[in-house]
Amino acid sequence: MEPQVLTLAGLWNSGPLHWQTQWEAKHPGWLRVPHRDWDTPDCAEWVAELDAAIAACAQPPVLAAHSLSCSLVTRWAASGSRARVAGAFLVGPSDVDAPSYPDCTTGFQPMQLAPLPFPSLVVASTDDPYVRIERAQQFAAAWGSRLVTIGDAGHINGDAGYGPWPEGEQLLLDFCAQLQR
């Protein structure tokens, strides 16, 4: 049985070349969490939108987050929501505390560094322009996540050549299978 997956795109959404968009086309049951504002996101609004999407699922979903939405997952986990998720697949977590992070977001700072109350896996690149590998390692340790480092992969998005990204899809499917055991 295919898991219920909610994809959580980052700042500015994920375009047609992004792995999230391509995986959604391949797996019609995998749904993107919609947001009213992709360009100047407000954390409280994004948390509420994520909570509504999770609550609409028939079973606890797996969250497949990219970039800013990795921070969103940690904020949602700390929100006290009664909704439940099976786990979180966190790819290319952006460091919203870094001076180089775009200043068009509200409420995502500081980074949440509390353990997540569900299984999680962080996938990080050694040359991501939005997070130093040492910070990604710190996030994974703080969240209680397993860390997979995939080398020089930029921001692990369509611009960095990660469109279909079959290796990432397999990582997610393996993660989902482990959750069902």
UniProtKB/TrEMBL annotation:
Give the molecular function GO annotations.
hydrolase activity
Q: Which domain of life is it from?
A: Bacteria
Q: Which residues cross the membrane?
A: none
Q: Check the record and name the InterPro entries matching this protein.
A: AB_hydrolase_fold, RBBP9/YdeN
Per UniProt, which keywords does this protein have?
Answer: Hydrolase
Signal peptide bounds: none
Q: Does the keyword Cell membrane apply?
A: no
Xref: Pfam families: Ser_hydrolase
The record's SUPFAM superfamilies line, in alphabetical order, gives: alpha/beta-Hydrolases (SSF53474)
The entry's protein name is Alpha/beta hydrolase
**Provenance organism:** Rugamonas apoptosis
